[in-house]
Amino acid sequence: MTTRWLVTGAHGLLGQDVLAELAADPDAVVTGPSREQLDITEPAAVRAAVTGHRVVVNCAAWTDVDGAERSEAAATAVNGTGVRNLAHACAVSGALLLHVSTDYVFPGDARRPYPEDAPTGPVNAYGRSKLAGEQAVVDVLPHSGYVVRTSWLYGAHGPNFVATMLELAARHETLDVVSDQHGQPTWSRSLARQLAALGRVALTGGAPAGIYHGTAAGRTTWCGLARETFRLSGLDPERIRPVGSDKFPRPATRPAFSVLGHGNWMRAGLAPPPPWDDQLTAALRVPKFAALAAAARASS
Q: What is the pLDDT of residues 32-54, one digit of tens each?
């Protein structure tokens, strides 16, 4: 029996991997509009797009963290109001909603991983806009809405930290990278697999609605991620020099600790996401990253 899936923001970094993951499912019929084809801030367009679909995976988002600090209302229109539009459309049509959120809903002052039910407290406009979206899902779809928080996302289909480090490696002998922010680098393809698996189990009624953490297991720093990227790519990790966040002042405050727990996957009968270093090892084998690494080695 086929299931119709709608993937919003399908041409983005994560959306393309979700499309690829669902393309391997013979029972999935997938619609994947781009941001230009479906503006989630338009309620009528959202209702029309959702109609006839059984599962909606929302990858559409305002992701410019510093830009949100300057334009919070615009960010909230997408990350908050747009998500509420999707939730209402799903409520009318009976579709399940899997909404991708962020670790930035937390203040970053913890010393141990944040569980899914930990109190939120974003420290920047981006986090506040994403929290508004989470609240919309929980309010409108208490029994059929799923919030999947992720962090430090990288992948083959857009600009991201891992690609940037390899690109810079080809032009600079050493790189200064922040070592006082702790988090969980997450490969977009791994997150896509978690989303697809969660959606399938949710269709059977086996996954409780609510909040899940789709970050990689384990933890590191930006400096640790850069060094491991270099090491796995055949580059000298000592070329990465640790510095404090004060070396790179940004408009938006970043949480110092963005490590999340994964307890709710067991409730859904699903394995939690793999460790961040295993994800990175797999990601660096894909053609984009392999080519960047080869170019960096050639320039050394």
A: 999 999 999 999 999 999 999 99
Catalytic residue from among 114, 126, 154, 212: 126
Residue 126: active-site member = yes
Domain locations in the chain? 3-159+186-217+259-275
Beta strands in 137-192 (DSSP E): 145-150, 153-154, 175-178, 182-183, 186-187
Say whether domain 3-159+186-217+259-275 belongs to CATH 3.30.70.20: no
Is the whole model's pTM more than 0.85, yes or no? yes
Q: What length does the chain have?
A: 300
> How does 104-133 read in b/e, with b if 16+ C-beta sit within 10 Å?
bbbbbebeebbebebebebbbbbbbbbbbb
